[in-house]
Amino acid sequence: MSARWHTFPTPEAAAEACCRHVAAILEETLTSQEIATFAVSGGSTPRLLFERLAASAVQWKRVHLFWVDERCVPPTDAESNYRLSEEHLIVPAHVPRSNVHRIHAELMPDHAARHYAEEIRDFFALEPGEMPQFDVMQLGVGPDAHTGSLFPGEALIENRESVVAAVYVDKLNTWRVTLLPGVLMAAKHSPFLVAGADKAEAVRNVFQAEYDPLKYPAQIVTHHSRRVAWFLDEPAAALLE
Questions:
Q1: Which of 209, 202, 156, 201 has the alpha carbon at shortest distance from 179?
Q2: Do residues 119 and 70 lie in contact, with contact meaning Cβ atoms separated by under 8 Å?
Q3: Among residues 75, 100, 119, 171, which one has the fewest Cβ atoms lying within 10 Å of its Cβ?
Q4: Where residue 212 sits, what CATH number does that domain have?
Q5: Is 149 exposed, middle or buried (CB count within 10 Å of its CB: 0-12, 13-18, 19+)?
Q6: Is residue 86 within 8 Å of 93, Cβ to Cβ?
Q7: Among 130, 139, 117, 136, which residue's Cα sits nearest to residue 63?
Q8: How many structural domains comprise the chain?
Q9: 102 and 82 Cβ atoms separated by less than 8 Å
């Protein structure tokens, strides 16, 4: 496992460091590519990241935005990951609408998943069985060690062939659409931004528990992806040895 973690006194400091990390990767990518791809996650902590990225010098006209997962709600819903990005990154950073590849989660879940998978396949010009390689995939982790919308016990955790799926989360009584493990593992850079004492046990388990991704889904990325960096506030890192 090549993943490393960095600890900061506050969520804001962790977000600032994560912002510098992401911005540097995007800018370096744009020195050798015409465009860069950036997949983002939802939640309260990413808001801090998005606000800082929006104020950065990243050439957003050359960055294409995708989503790691989405709740099955309309894009105007307060629970929408897209809405969070819209308000705190897309609008303030003036990201071109043609660069925004959202999950159409207002559709039926399976339809939304198929639509998103087709858009990804077309954008990356994927051959059958090939996985997209996002330049940056920003992730988080839940108190149960889920990442994206891959929750403990989800059978799709073992799926390495498909790109996107609709998942029903029993504990939340809701549908979501999520990228699948093959895509998560193929990302070129995978920064995690995690804050809060309620995440401490999950963080410890991802790094120090026996490898069991069905129990700790975030281990998939942390153990198998190429360049993984965790940005933690002190409460989230409290149980790491």
A1: 156
A2: no
A3: 171
A4: 3.40.50.1360
A5: buried
A6: no
A7: 136
A8: 1
A9: yes
Q: How far apart are CA 29 and CA 135, in angstroms?
A: 8
- Which residue from 55, 54, 64 is spatially nearest to 34, judged by alpha carbons? 64
Q: How far is CA 184 from the centre of its chain?
A: 8
Is residue 191 in some structural domain? Answer: yes
The residue whose two tokens read 């919308």 is 149
Answering whether pTM is above 0.90, one says yes
**Domain assignment of residue 47, given as a range:** 4-233
Our CA dihedral for 33, 95, 42, 56, rounded to 10 degrees, sits at 80
Q: Is residue 130 part of a domain?
A: yes
Is residue 138 a contact partner of residue 46, using CB atoms and an 8 Å limit? Answer: yes
Strands 174-179 and 164-169: antiparallel
Q: Is 224 in a helix, a strand, or coil?
A: helix
Residues 208 and 241: beta-carbon distance below 8 Å: yes
Question: Residue 238 domain-assigned?
Answer: no
CB atoms within 10 A of CB 139: 26
In the β-sheet with 69-71, what is the strand arrangement from edge to edge? Answer: 69-71, 174-179, 164-169
Does a structural domain hold residue 186? yes
In this predicted model, what pLDDT tens digit does every residue of 149-206 receive, in sequence order? 999 999 999 999 999 999 999 989 999 999 999 999 999 999 999 999 999 999 999 9
